[in-house]
Predict the 3D structure of the following.
Amino acid sequence: MKNIRNFCIIAHVDHGKSTLADRLLQLTNTVSSRDMHDQMLDSMDLERERGVTIKASAVRMNYRAKDGQDYVINLIDTPGHVDFTYEVSRALQACEGALLVVDASQGIEAQTLTNVYLALEQDLEILPVVNKIDLPAARPDEIAKEVEDLLGVSADEMIRISAKQGVGVQDVLEAVVQQVPAPKGDENAPLRALVFDSHYDSYKGVVAYVRVVDGKLSGRTPLRLMATDAKFEPVEIGVFSPTMQPINELTAGEVGYVATGLKTVQECRVGDTLTLANNGASEALPGYKRVKPMVFAGIYPTENDDYPELRDALEKLQLNDASLQYTPETSQALNFGFRVGFLGLFHMEIIQERLEREYDLDILATAPSVEYEVVKRSGEVVEIDSPAQLPDESTIAEIREPWMKIQIYTPQEFIGAIMDLVIKKRGRYETTEYLDPTRVILHYRIPLSEVIVDFYDRLKSVSKGYASLDYQFDTYEPGKLVKLDILVNGDPVDALATIVHTDDAYHKGQRLVSKLKELIPRQMFVVPIQASVGGKIISRANVSAMRKDVLAKCYGGDITRKKKLLEKQKKGKKRMKMIGSVEVPQEAFMALLSLGDEE
């Protein structure tokens, strides 16, 4: 065990984490130069395009250090976005050390800080690395000073590297060997292994990525997952290098995988503890929790016939992603579809894009909403994730909405504009922390429903792209919330209903109605569009009718002839209006998302 090192790389999005991992794989000859390609550990096209690791992975490297000893180094790659914080925390728990990669031109950003705090909570040894020193805009000394103020590690000792050019990467490996402690664990105790990720394989079932903490894991011994109580006999045990390679056993301190043969990722959750089915450990490893979706949206196929394909696609995506939840739902406007729960907006964007690309589906997504707690007068508490599920107004005592703690990391000159933005979004100020004379962290509490629509985009535009954001769930709080209904031609369109704060209802209703007036096509009859709250109409606009010039043939003669024709036309329009139906186009559902832009 003394020659094993387990570490992970933590960084803000796009600070060079995957590139550094590539160089480490090359330097240790884990991957031959013939098989090497950029972003080796990011297997999805989406990950490569966006430069964000979405799925964690692990890889085992053999390295002969300068002291002449051979070491086994396990690198556990972590996802790079705030939506996946729980997965990051489990990956960190599987390690003893973390490389903190900071971009030499951009410096510390919000995600960097969050991950540092996560790593400190797990008592990891943190090795700061200043990357991208080859860039013309690099300021390695200033950035090293910033990191020194944050961590207390001397700026002179920090490793400066350029992962792209391969400069200084050898020093990183030496630092890992020298400074990251060897894993602790009892080889003779009953087996306890932490599941820090998993994926589904059509031949081997669910493949769990594990870090063995105590005991030994050998093939064919029946195993049990402690949180879900699923029992199985392993199909295969092995290590990643970086492809899957079977071996006979994994002992305490090692990182590898177990092919479980289980059919769904639901039974093998991230953070669970793996032990022996007979005479296993009595106590699970700490920190496991079930991940709850925070953002919900309706996803519908544009063609009704594609409904079975959409269901199959969601089923397949769920095999690899236990945090994705979906239930069938129907809408008068959009027919059959699913209500899907996501960890956050980024997760939602990724799933939508994968459905369109990998499964070739044309889908239509409604505006995202969050999960509310409704307390009825009878004392019963109901959780709803769609405005359509809101019970009758007379039975509601109060509605509670989720509030988030957010940290905004920004240069000083944008503080005013950012404070203004957050206050408009019903945010409550908590504290300001100064990191150095020019940069601050603003701490706020804000309702999640205000964050999910366009908050991030607007934050980037008011701060010229410099501010970065991080958020965590805080509590549920009661608020003055009402359901805003949109009626088109007298019929409520359920997919356009939203839950809003009383103070915003009038403005939101008015803006939405004006927007829909431009988007809904004209008919042969007048189409009224109304916004209503609790049965009371608060705003209305009419889409004027297309008119046929019935008077063209009535030149000259008596006015009564014209009147008679117009009366006849009026009657026809009235009858048409009674039986006519209005198609609401896809752009109308997207209008809900872009409402914030006109404020």
User: Anything to note?
Assistant: Residues 559-579 form the longest helix (21 residues). The CA atoms of residues 367 and 592 lie 6 Å apart.
